[in-house]
Amino acid sequence: MNELLIADDHPLFREALHGLIAKLYPATAIYEADNISSLYSLVEDRPQADLLLLDLNMPGAAGYSALVHLRAQHPQLPIVIISAHEDPVLIRRALDHGAMGFIPKSVEAKTLSTALHEILIGNTWLPETMTLRSPVISSAEKEAASLLRELTPQQFRVLQMVSTGQLNKQIAHELSVSEATIKTHMTAILRKLGATNRTQAVLIANQLLLNEKNPEEISFS
């Protein structure tokens, strides 16, 4: 393994994970991201990385949105979820959205080593207590993921900011662009999602939240 990416917002966990992987794979270059913006930049800079370990609760992301976006933009990058969540439904949903495995943060070092080995040779890895159940994502969630994959990286960033309640002026300032540019992005986002307004666009994005009970299903027609 030449390069490995870690995306997690907890410094102590990142440090511990970094140290452990460095011992397991001493020749591997390890890069870290602590929020969703830095993660996207990191992946764009290192698209040929061997593996991304992704926390589901990254600041700036909503549920499986980062996973869906990265799988669409960088299909060659293997992504494994590493998370404190251990609910079988959440694990299954991660696999349905393209993750190669799901590693609970509670696992011991030996188990992590086994998981990484299996994933790097192309296998899927799950906790021993997890059985590979049938897909559980709803038709609305599946359709939402399909629509979101059509967004460009910048459009996706804008939609995520809209989902957190930010106004065009705030988004423009954070992205260092004009409000007119954000309005142009929003027009394209609504068209690609088949949405008529910002609220409906956010509802579509919210289909990928982690809630075991999905948000109320909406029509995409």
At a glance:
With 221 residues, the chain is an alpha/beta fold. It has two domains: 118 residues, Rossmann fold; 70 residues, Arc Repressor Mutant, subunit A (Orthogonal Bundle). It contains ten helices and five strands; from the N terminus they run βαβαβαβαβαααααα.
How does this structure look, described?
This protein has 221 residues and is α/β, with parallel strands linked by helices. It has 2 domains: 118 residues, Response regulator (Rossmann fold, 3-Layer(aba) Sandwich); 70 residues, Arc Repressor Mutant, subunit A (Orthogonal Bundle), CATH 1.10.10.10. Helix content is 48%, strand content 10%. It has 10 helices and 5 strands. It has a 5-stranded parallel sheet, sandwiched between helices. α3 links the parallel β3 and β4. α7 crosses α9 and α8 packs across α9. The longest helix is centred in the last third of the chain and has 15 residues. The C terminus is likely disordered.
Q: How far is it from the N-terminal to the C-terminal residue, by CA?
A: 45 Å
| Element-level helix/strand string | EHEHEHEHEHHHHHH
- Largest sheet: number of strands, sense, barrel closure: 5 strands, parallel
* Helix/strand structural class: alpha/beta
Key terms:
221 residues, alpha/beta, Rossmann fold, Arc Repressor Mutant, subunit A, 2 domains, 10 helices, 5 strands, globular, disordered C terminus
Indicate the topology.
Blueprint: E1 3-7, H1 11-24, E2 29-33, H2 36-45, E3 51-54, H3 65-73, E4 79-83, H4 88-96, E5 101-104, H5 109-120, H6 139-148, H7 153-163, H8 168-175, H9 179-193, H10 198-205
Parallel strand pairs: 1-2, 1-3, 3-4, 4-5
